[in-house]
Amino acid sequence: MPDLLPPPPFSPLLGRAAVWLLAILGVALVALAITPASDLAVSVALVTPDSPFATAIQRWGEVPGLLVASLALWFVPIPIGGMSPAHAVLRAVGHAGAVFYVLWAFAGHGSLSELGRAEVSAGIALALAAGAALTWARRRVHVLPTPEREHFWRVTLALAIGGSLVVLAFKLGFGRIRFREMLEDLDQFSPWWIPHGLTGHASFPSGHTFWSWVVLPIVALVPPRRRVLALVAALAWPVTVALGRVVAGAHFLSDVLFASVVAVLVVLLAERAARRAALASEGGEKRELD
Q1: What is the pLDDT of residue 109?
Q2: CA-CA distance, 206 to 200, in Å (whole number)?
Q3: Least CB-packed of 168, 227, 231, 242 within 10 Å?
Q4: Per-residue DSSP letters for 240-255?
């Protein structure tokens, strides 16, 4: 029987880009491992914590990635038997987390204790209400499943959930002090590969930089002819956020590079897994037609 199915609508562009990015970032990290003084020198040269650029990145740097993750959650198919209570709660909490962070950014992204209990409680209540509303709407809105959308949500959620847990584990295990927390003599600086354990510090790796990479899988939703341009635009955001975090004195260059390595590695692995799943599904459909 002739082949009635079209080829996969997405190209391996995202995977190829991830391989090159991983190689470039890895070389940069090795260079900083060989010459750790250069890691400190970059911060000494760039840090201007009160600059509008640093303040804006501190406030908004993670927001696009969280919104993309919420969009990916929207595209997750509803099981044939319907959305179970546990499934609905997980969806609502996921959406609520993104909404709360956006509200926090609008409030100035300061310490939660500075906002006051009433403001925080109101924000949580509003975020949960928004998460519940989005989940309710998703149960009643038919979202046409497409290979592009499945590719997108699989890679994005693997990055947002799996990658963020990896970043959190490194933050807790390494306990690296931030540049802006060091004394004037800078004696507390240490190379990026040395773990310090639970110190209360959380410079390594950069959470803002990691979450800025969550915008990358959205390239899968862009028409093929525009994917290169979309990839360039998507890469510009993590570069901007990484620079902003160094300028703010919140992270060293090695912090943002390592966070980028984690993010790109997860994208690479998840992208390949998603492509294998798509090709396996296509093969099954072909066998049914035969």
Answers
A1: 67
A2: 15
A3: 168
A4: HHHHHHHHTTS--HHH
Structure-derived torsion over alpha carbons of residues 252, 54, 163, 172, reported in degrees to the nearest 10: 50
Percentages of the chain per state (helix, strand, coil), in multiples of 5: 75, 0, 25
Cα(65)–Cα(160) distance, integer angstroms: 8
Side-chain-side CA neighbours of 127 within 13 Å: the count stands at 20
State the pLDDT confidence band at 280, using cuts at 50, 70 and 90. confident
Residues 6+ apart with CB under 8 A from 142: none
Same domain, 176 and 263: yes
How many structural domains comprise the chain?
2
pLDDT at 265 over 70: yes
**249 and 281 inside one domain:** yes
CATH number of the domain to which 70 belongs? 1.20.144
Read off the pTM: 0.90
**Helix residue ranges, H only, 47-141:** 52-60, 63-75, 85-106, 112-115, 117-140
Quick one: pLDDT at residue 4?
Answer: 41
Per-residue pLDDT of 89-101, as tens digits, reads 999 999 999 999 9
Q: Is residue 3 part of a domain?
A: no
The tens digit of pLDDT for each residue in 239-249 reads 999 999 999 99
> Could you count the other beta carbons within 10 Å of the beta carbon of residue 183?
9
110: containing domain: 81-142
CA distance 247 to 239: 12
Of 111, 142, 173, the position where a domain reaches its end is 142
Calpha distance 250→180 (Å, rounded): 6
